[in-house]
Amino acid sequence: MRILRAAQVLTGRPGEVIPYGEVAVDGDMIAFAGPRGGAGEPGDADEVVDLPGCTLLPGLIDAHVHLGFDDKVDPVTRQSPESDRHLLLRMAENARKLVSAGVTTARDLGARGFLDLALRDAIEEGLAVGPHLIAATRPITPTGGHCWYMGGEADDLPAIRRVARENLRAGADCLKIMASGGQMTPSAAPSWVQQYSTEEIRAVVEEAGARGKGVAAHAHAHAAIRSAVEAGVATIEHCSFFTPSGHRYDPELADVVAESGTYVCPTLHGVYWRLRDTLGPEMLDDWLHGIVALRDAGVRLIAGTDSGFAAAGVGNRTDGYVAGLEVFAGAGFGNAEVIELATARAADACGVGAVTGTVETGKRADLIAVRGDPLRRISDLRELVLVLVAGRAVTQTGVDTVTSSL
Ligand SMILES: [Zn+2]
């Protein structure tokens, strides 16, 4: 057993701070979290790690990544020149970078060839370094629809159920459906067009639910957001209220989302400011104002970066996670709330809240320690001194490679 002592322990729930707390880690589990001295006599521990001036808190959760998002897809031939073998190695490198930023759980919402499952299992076996992965495998999308090249095309109810079941048979932890179009697939409907009806989305919810799993719905369009709520998905991704003339926040629809309790991952990321410089302030400001309005309407937001994508030539780095939290804070979210939506609430939304996301006795030892106090300064989350994934120390900051940073 190891005892970690810090200037304070944040449990992940808002307002829960244990001053001069300590956490005992026994194997891959948290054996104790509470005031100093509660974990037993230091002499009984194998090791006592003192972290003066540091904050211990739950490992961060990125609810929306694409470790295998292939930015090399040729929009003309629609073929990727990258082999699955090569892509899997790149995904492993992206996973290493992600955990090096303090992310100990990540939900991968779209990968081809079931490579996310291979990587997930390799990480759990200790063959690769990375966060715990919650893998959606192939996103369900119409033929030629948003991200069709990941292999999850389905145009009617029987086909939708078949792809859902094939994903689950392969070992998917959750399912992803592209309820609206998107920007980055040339043959796909644009973001403001609904791709699937409520009934079709509900079929995916049923298939996942029968196996105790949840559904993430990619939805930019108003109608797609509404259908996703009606169908009972666990999380809505983006929820950007996109129209042909930009983001048009709808307070009535936001109330529908809030009342349903559906979580929203707005995929607010750390390249917000660079994109704003590139695309102009109007669209990006409308988007951010919409996210703040969703929070004010009572919608349960969670952190997720959509890392792996590149928009307008701006790459969204896998290890840029904390920069996304800084955008939340800059938009007026309180630091305690930002930490909650990046830990406990994100775990609940991703269906792993019983296992991880908070620092408490009996949870998995997914922990980080940072120098400073992120309740006062959210950027202190950059000052990592320790990252534990199921009790294993994995901090590798400072290791650089020549591969793509996406
Ligand atoms: Zn995505």
From TrEMBL:
Note the CDD domains from the entry. Met_dep_hydrolase_A
Highest taxon in the source lineage: Bacteria
List residues of the Amidohydrolase-related domain: 55-394
Return one GO MF term.
Answer: hydrolase activity, acting on carbon-nitrogen (but not peptide) bonds
Q: What is this protein called?
A: Imidazolonepropionase
Lineage from the top down? Bacteria, Bacillati, Actinomycetota, Actinomycetes, Streptosporangiales
